[in-house]
Specification:
Strand 1 (544-548) and strand 2 (551-555) form a beta hairpin. The chain has 655 residues and is of the alpha+beta class. It has 27 helices and eight strands. It has a domain at 543-655. The chain has helices spanning 2-8, 12-29, 32-51, 58-77, 80-94, 101-120, 124-141, 143-149, 152-166, 169-185, 189-206, 211-223, 227-240, 247-262, 268-284, 288-304, 308-324, 330-346, 350-367, 370-386, 390-407, 410-426, 430-446, 450-470, 477-496, 500-516, 520-536, and strands at residues 544-548, 551-555, 569-571, 595-597, 603-605, 610-618, 624-634, 652-654. InterPro entries: TPR-like_helical_dom_sf, TPR_rpt. It comes from Polarella glacialis (Dinoflagellate). This is MalT-like TPR region domain-containing protein.
């Protein structure tokens, strides 16, 4: 079909004209099959237009209408195979971009209906494709859908088996690639490794492009902490190709090499050289979006290493590349602006970023540009969060989410939801924060944005911890253990990303959970590990709990928590802090005291015998602080610790 050939060459507008002409011709002839095929061609072209940077949800909605119309026509005419093809296209469209769980389930049912039709017609190829699409839809729908309709892994394996029975190596390789991608998106790099290797071998044997399979292999190695093996795989692939045979593939491999080297300490200069060459080739080939992507990754790398000037300059280059593209992508522009904002905020240049955002918002509102408005609101929200204006942050983030949804920018929507979660937590609104963080996590996952997904997982953990601490959710051991499992997954993913700041945040939060579970030794190790990472980042450490020879020592700093008769918070004992108040019940007097570990593992005040537990609370300004929460009971005596004297840390308790 001429329109398909033109679309494959990137000439979408020409292909659209031909498909429209074909649709009109078949309609005039009353040829139902031909008319349905043209409708499906138009639906596919809508998807391509969306992928090429058309903003808004209109292209996808229009595509869904085309596919639904084609399906209805074929169903009425009894064209089962063509009806199944229309159902598959509809399923893909329903699961595109930032689909909801409901849309993903609708997509699954459409693919399942297509599977039944293909099976009735004895079409194994079509059945395999339907299973492949159904697996993707189930993945997008989440675990609950998998429990009801079968896991995505089962559907994917069934598709692979069918393709192998057909003897099609190309289809087999493509399905292996799909399986690897889904495992990576599911956070299971170990399971993704084998199918990625198999797919890479099959594509090479077929003489087909193997870059996507190599990408999966590299990402799996990096996530597993095997960056050296990732580097080796990329270099081996580069050696297999003549220098000028496929410049775009070569640039992509250099990008992969850059990301792999960036995960290895001491390889910064080599990674920078790869970046420079990859950007040069992409720009030479007119692939401005790809060049922008590489620059953004490089800017993020420098920002994490606190090389803020470099991060800002490279983000500006990325923004310039995105804006000067022949087909400017709203997603790229929004991402570049956010990267520039992140770098400036990290460098303490909040006012500068806010002025840029205000200027962009004014011009975009005048032009009715929803995508740019979303980007401007998002940057403003980030600035307000940095300056601790949480109400303004929440308002700007909500505006960003609305504009992003209207513009069809799923990633911007996810970032806006993440900022809503952070501002909500800072104001103690754990329920709303949890919902926002969970939605953000799902959107990041759908977009294969692993750093964003992990950051959202951290905010989910914060919200869950706050609910358990404040009694919104019953603080049972099972509940705490569930939170711990989620945070342990986040920790592994953050470490795989070599994200020191994110890893430290997860460790501190996980330490809080372990403390609530009574695992104080594990909590201490986690907080000490977090402190080491803080030192690497050049920032002061958070409070630590340090057990030593059976004695629990708490190093507190910062303002006291909100005063309640059943809550204690430690403040520095150096006399520079606010004057502590005495407890209402007179159990304590002003002055130093000591905590010791009782035989049963409890933390006990050496003078009064009161029993304490360590927990996290928000203080009056919304800051998380580790505090000692007094149980509503007293041992009535001091229990000596075998083999250890009392802790010699002085502390003040304020109620």
């Amino acid at each position: 079909m001429a329109s398909s050939q033109l679309a494959a060459e990137g000439r979408v507008n020409e292909a659209w004209t031909i498909a429209e002409q074909g649709l009109a011709s078949f309609k005039s002839l009353g040829h139902v099959g031909g008319e349905a095929k043209m409708l499906l061609a138009l639906a596919e072209l809508c998807r391509l237009k969306k992928g090429l940077g058309d903003s808004g949800v209109a292209p996808l909605l229009q595509a869904q209408q085309f596919a639904a119309e084609a399906r209805a026509m074929c169903q009425a005419a009894g064209f089962k195979t063509l009806e199944a093809s229309a159902l598959l296209e509809l399923s893909v469209l329903l699961c595109a971009d930032s689909c909801s769980v409901q849309q993903a389930l609708q997509g699954f049912h459409a693919a399942d209906d297509a599977l039944k039709l293909f099976q009735q017609e004895g079409d194994d190829h079509g059945s395999g494709m339907a299973l492949q699409v159904a697996a993707g839809a189930l993945f997008a729908a989440g675990e609950e859908a998998g429990a009801e309709f079968g896991t995505w892994q089962k559907k994917a394996d069934e598709a692979l088996l069918l393709f192998r029975q057909l003897g099609s190596k190309r289809l087999e390789a493509s399905q292996l690639l799909c399986i690897s991608k889904l495992h990576l998106a599911d956070g299971n790099a170990k399971a993704a490794l084998s199918p990625a290797k198999e797919a890479l071998v099959e594509f090479r044997n077929l003489g087909a492009k193997d870059v996507e399979a190599l990408q999966c292999l590299v990402e799996a190695h990096v996530q597993l902490g095997e960056a050296a093996q990732a580097v080796e795989a990329v270099k081996e692939s580069l050696e297999r190709r003549p220098g000028e045979s496929d410049l775009e593939a070569q640039a992509t491999m250099l990008e992969l090499l850059m990301s792999s080297l960036a995960a290895i300490p001491g390889k910064e200069e080599e990674a920078a050289a790869c970046t420079k060459e990859a950007v040069r080739i992409f720009q030479q080939q007119g692939q401005d979006s790809s060049a922008c992507r590489v620059l953004l990754a490089t800017s993020a790398m420098h920002r994490k290493r606190r090389q803020f000037d470099k991060a800002i300059n490279i983000a500006q280059d990325a923004l310039s590349a995105a804006q000067k593209s022949e087909r400017p992508s709203k997603d790229d522009i929004a991402s570049a602006l956010q990267s520039y904002s992140d770098a400036c905020l990290a460098a303490g240049k909040t006012e500068k970023v806010l002025k840029v955002a205000e200027g962009l918002l004014s011009s975009s509102q005048h032009a009715g540009d929803q995508a740019s408005q979303a980007a401007a609101f998002l940057v403003s929200a980030s600035c307000y969060l940095e300056s601790r204006d949480f109400s303004a942050c929440a308002e700007a983030a909500r505006s960003a989410q609305v504009s992003a949804e209207q513009a069809g920018l799923g990633l911007v929507q996810a970032k806006a939801l993440l900022l809503q979660a952070k501002s909500g937590l800072a104001r103690g609104k754990s329920k709303a924060a949890l919902l926002s963080a969970q939605r953000a996590q799902r959107l990041f996952k759908q977009a294969f944005d692993r750093p964003g997904e992990v950051e959202a997982m951290v905010e989910v953990g914060r919200a869950e911890v706050l609910q358990l601490q404040t009694g919104i959710r019953e603080p049972t051991q099972t509940a705490w253990e569930s939170v711990a499992r989620g945070l342990q997954t986040a920790r592994n993913l953050a470490k795989a990303l070599s994200d020191t700041e994110l890893t430290a945040a997860v460790l501190r939060l996980l330490a809080t959970v372990q403390t609530a579970l009574g695992e104080l030794e594990d909590a201490s190790k986690l907080t000490q590990e977090a402190a080491q990472l803080d030192n690497q980042l050049g920032r002061p450490s958070e409070p630590l709990i340090q057990p030593s020879a059976g004695v629990a020592v708490f190093n507190g700093r910062g303002p006291a928590a909100a005063r309640e008769t059943t809550r204690l918070s430690l403040v520095p004992a150096d006399g520079e802090s606010q004057e502590p108040a005495a407890l209402d019940d007179g159990e304590f007097q002003k002055g130093p005291s000591q905590l010791i570990r009782a035989a049963g593992g409890e933390l006990v005040d050496a003078r009064s015998g009161l029993v304490f537990e360590v927990a996290d609370r928000l203080d009056s300004s919304g800051h998380p602080r580790q505090i000692l929460t007094r149980y509503r009971r007293s041992l009535g005596r001091t229990v000596p610790v075998s083999g250890a004297g009392p802790a010699n840390l002085e502390y003040f308790a304020t109620c």
